[in-house]
UniProtKB/TrEMBL annotation:
Residues 509-534 are annotated as: Disordered. This is Hemocyanin-like protein. PROSITE patterns: HEMOCYANIN_1 (PS00209), HEMOCYANIN_2 (PS00210), TYROSINASE_2 (PS00498). Residues 293-304 form the Tyrosinase copper-binding domain. SUPFAM superfamilies: Di-copper centre-containing domain (SSF48056), E set domains (SSF81296), Hemocyanin, N-terminal domain (SSF48050). Belongs to the tyrosinase family. Hemocyanin subfamily. It comes from the Eukaryota. One of its GO terms (molecular function) is oxidoreductase activity.
Amino acid sequence: MLFEVLIQCKEWDCAVKNAAYWREHMNEGEFVYALYTAVIHSDLGHGIVLPPLYEVTPHLFTNSEIIQKAYTAKMTNTPGTFEMEFTGTKKNKEQRVAYFGEDIGMNVHHVTWHMDFPFWWEDRYGGHLDRKGELFFWVHHQLTVRFDSERLSNYLDMVDELQWDKPIEEGFAPHTIYKYGGEFPARPDHIHFEDVDGVARVRDMIIMESRIHDAIGHGYITDKDGKVINIMNDQGIDKLRDIIESSVYSPNVQYYGALHNTAHIMLGRQGDPHGKYNMPPGVMEHFETATRDPTFFRLHKYMDNIFKEHKYSLPPYTHEDLDFPGVNVDSLSIDGELKTYFEDYEFDLRNAVDSAEGIPTVDLKASVHRLNHDDFSFVADVNNNNGKEVVGTFRIYLCPRFDNNGERFDFTNGSWHCIEMDKFWKTLSPGGNHVVRKSRDSSVTVPDVPSFQSLIDAADSGSFSMPEFERSCGIPNRMLLPKGKKNGMDFALILAVTDGSYDLTHSDAESEHGGTHAQCGAHGETYPDKRPMGFPVDRHIPDRRVYDETTNIKLVHVKVYHDDSHH
């Protein structure tokens, strides 16, 4: 309701006064969600930098021990910086990768993506969101494969998929609290799924899943009028995702249901499935907190395997699909070292505690341990033998070479685990081209948004222009690389340069399209790349020679190092 009020404001005055009024009269979680989503989608939102959510609603991004310390500091008027520990103990091997699921920047990326592409979006709000379904697949696929590489970096197996008829192996104790409404509920180990009153039965979930598998097996979806929608093409993944999420774009929600959204609620309620203890919603029911629970990744591996079944049912790419005639990638290398480390980062906790007029403001901060990496550049020498300028689409992937047992992935089963590192367009002159692309320019990532206080100070100063921070959707720049290992972790680095004149949906060849188009699209525009997301490693590869014989694709081996002495 509030989003509809704000999105229909055509004048600044209308939007600001409504926001000010409803801020005082609405649940603050609802207010923040509606305001952020309206700013992202409204024409009035251009130029606005939204403060980082972890400083607006810190309860959802830090643990309850920190919140209690902040309250004590406020009451005793003692400034403080409190070190945030990751959830759990070393007895729980999942804690080794908690730095990924609990990363404040990664959580902001996840929640902001869902604001950029809400499941409840109707085109009357402001146009069609291009390839929303496919973007859902791609962004969650990338979260899953990144999590798998983090697990391999920490000597853990890749994550197993969730199954409705088997126990949920990992429990989770969130150690987080609502600002109003008690603690987030915990879930013990090894529990069987139970029906959730008022939401769904486990049997309903199995039926929904089987109908989706049937659609993949048949190669078509049936819409609500009984018409057949073919999915055996590049657009099929978009349609499939619409029915799985499900979004308003689903052509038959009555038959296919809402597998993804219902699964999140089912998981969130397993601690109190029958409402016996009147527990509040679980972490899986909020986009801000969902990735904290290791089961989030098990759920998305389950979703991902459904998509893989569809993708691998499509015909493999041929030499003609992959080839860019006259263009050769002669060399591919890294300038700098692929090295990661942990650093401490402080963020403001003032919004975590209540205040009143006349009570002095106390400086309260949380200090969090987070992953970062040294700057590096991708370097490629590309030869254009066409005798004229051509536009190349540069697609860069990083793929783990070995599983946790040291078994080497072959090209067929390893390509599904590739991490998208960058995608950009470059005009190639006739002859040799030396292309250097800095890691911080990646179209997959975003920089850290300045703190709430520094945004207030900049606005008060009267000079405010921060276009690079307008979008919060994107993997944090510092997490572009997986953690790697002390002695180096083996990856394959792949560069595919494809024909930009075919790929590009826009005339502006070297535009960055808002900076994070690879996984977040471009606001108000068609997705800039015509090819399927993940091209050319998104389909089954029965014969590696098709890739080896294609001169516009280059694969080299690299190592990612982790420096555990860095502070």
